[in-house]
Specification:
mainly alpha, binds fe (ii) ion
């Protein structure tokens, strides 16, 4: 007896086109999270100086959160009948989060984090729009992740404000 396929929703045969489009967006999100893990890991270790301490601790915490996001994207890719890509498909994009020339240049790191979070926020907003009325579960998941990224961005904007107020940024 053949297994019945879903007749309604994103898992249905009729929605295979939407599913393929969505899978590409979810794979991009997955790579963005993993690159962020790499960048935050490096930048949670590299900076020198008393003032870097808060930033370093904040980034060290975020690593786990971003990794959790990558895991959620991976699970959802599989649930939508996709395959989580292998590492050879990875292409780095975060030019702005490379190690600064001076390891005390914490403003470079703060600006890089804001850039990364902004990129994620923009891409996740697109996923939320595309999934509207099409895939409620992915939409719900991405809304929660978006909330985290908005929180990260706001936190680092606060750090930047402090440096700007002191004429250091
Ligand atoms: Fe994230
Ligand atoms: Fe984030």
């Amino acid at each position: 007896m053949a297994t019945r396929t879903a007749e309604k929703g994103i898992l249905s045969e009729a929605k295979s086109g939407e599913r393929d489009q969505l899978l590409e967006m979810l794979k991009k999100a997955y790579w963005m999270e993993l690159e962020t893990v790499m960048s935050y890991l490096a930048n949670s270790v590299n900076p020198d100086g008393v003032r870097a301490q808060e930033i370093v601790e904040s980034l060290a915490q975020d690593i786990q959160e971003e990794l959790g996001h990558a895991q959620q994207y991976a699970s959802r890719i599989k649930e939508l009948y996709g395959v989580v890509p292998g590492s050879l498909d990875f292409a780095a994009e975060q030019t702005y989060l490379q190690p600064p020339e001076h390891q005390t240049d914490i403003v470079h790191v703060i600006r890089g984090v804001i850039e990364a979070e902004t990129g994620a926020i923009e891409h996740y907003n697109r996923i939320i729009e595309v999934t509207d009325g099409v895939d409620w579960v992915t939409q719900d998941m991405v809304i929660a992740i978006l909330h985290d990224e908005e929180g990260h961005r706001r936190l680092f904007e606060g750090y930047l404000r402090e440096y700007e107020a002191e004429g250091l940024a």
